[in-house]
Amino acid sequence: MTLDPITMAGNKARGKRPSYFKEADTDRLMAILMALAGELAVTRERVDTLERLLAARGLLEREAIENYEPDSDAARERGLWHQDFIARILRVVQQEIEQFDEDRQARRQAREENVSATTELEELIDELAST
Amino acid sequence: MADADRQVPPSWNVVGRHGVFPEARHDDVARFNFLTNLNIHLASQVLPGVRKAYDYRVERGATPTNRREVGELLKREPMYQFWSSMRRNTMEMRQQNSRAMVFRQLPELVEKARQLNQDSETLQLDSAVEIPRYISAVDIHCMPGGYHTEYCEDDIAAGANYDSGIFVTTAGMLGRYSDGGGQALAKWLRDEAESGFRPRRILDIGCTVGHNIVPLAQAFPDTEILAIDVAPPVLRYANARAKSLGVDNITFRQENAESINAEDGSFDLIITCMFLHETSSRALPRILAETHRLLADGGKVVHIEQPQFSPDMPLYEQFMRDWDTRNNNEPFWGTLHDLDLFEAMEQAGFEREKITTQGLFAVVDETLFPSAAKAATDNEDYGRKPAWHAYIASK
């Protein structure tokens, strides 16, 4: 068997892959998008390494990047960067979750004030215009 | 500082190295760091959204009566679709990233293992052992090729892949050598030893790379240990790994757990660690019967597993805990956790009043790794938190 690490790394696991979205295209797009996000994170981490080494030594040695190991402070800063990065690219999901609370609050208010419960902007504009 | 309370996992750099551990380059480490943090984000920031979507459905009058109906409701929820898709992708990416690292250096790794395993009496492979269908039918944990596929002569790729990537799946919560479960077992056995239970011979069933049994071997160097698995690539890796960590009291042997080549009553302690859910309805009673046959009078069997689904467990939690069955290639996961394990052990010959259960938390170096015992409850990830139920039977 020829060992081609690049192809073998991406082999499929035996067992049908579940689909999650209505369109198969969305499943595919999500997988590509996440891989892209991962690679961007990797690039950013590499730049971070470069910057730290340049600052520390004043010159760049390629081998030094391969061997760099963050100390606990740097590792923490990097971890926080990952979290910040992930939160930024998944902002739309965070906002969708916040929408649950917004809707719940709107429903409560609607019951109390006997008005429309919607938080859809267009309907709200109409509602505000008519009251 | 505003982010002072943020839980930041250790960088993958702190992972414990040994003689057959793959060498990571800068970007390999960064990929693992990204996935580790993505897993934490999904568990702490997105999963609560799935719960809110579910609660909203229930508020609107949906009344699921079993976990399948919970699934039907959730399958239509965009937040659940998104979370599931992301979760599946992090696992596939974790496999791809560590396989890329392992296959790049496979000839060197195989050679290192060969040298450590050369003339070793503690590695006993047997080509007559067949891979059971519950292992070969689907690749468990979405690990391509499973634990048994051999890509070259004396292959250890599956072991190296599993060992190096588990840190990502558990967000580093199993500690430096991903052995937090084994350390917990060692702590349990130290307590038992104080009250007089000192096993001379231990059997570990389904040992994979030996990460759960090495801590016991280190804590009790005079104890004779047999660790079995059906898959040669993980056994070769496990033996080389143990050797390079200075452990020589474990024999790694290729055996099918349903029929183990050992005399009746030959072990004082038999353990399985997150193994029973990797088997099948047909194999489980046979394996439990083997533990009863092989256990000496006065001995103990310890099974470490996830909690069982009981009627007391909320339906939503049941469904979420069952997620791995279909989405992480764990075909027996749900069936096992629906089972009354007490009853199954009783049928294998153990007396009901001699079976107990207790909670077990990963024991890790807390200066570097987050403690499972102290992990925030709002970070629940249904089945991935390193906290388990131990089922303990005495004979």
UniProtKB/TrEMBL annotation, chain A:
Residues 102-131 are annotated as: Disordered. Residues 102-114 have a biased composition (Basic and acidic residues). Residues 120-131 have a biased composition (Acidic residues). It comes from the Bacteria. This is Uncharacterized protein.
Automatic annotation (TrEMBL), chain B:
The keyword Transferase applies. The gene is rebM_1. One of its GO terms (biological process) is methylation. GO terms for molecular function: demethylrebeccamycin--D-glucose O-methyltransferase activity. Residues 202-299 form the Methyltransferase domain. It comes from Microbulbifer aggregans. It is an enzyme of class 2 (transferase). This is Demethylrebeccamycin-D-glucose O-methyltransferase. It holds the Pfam family Methyltransf_25.
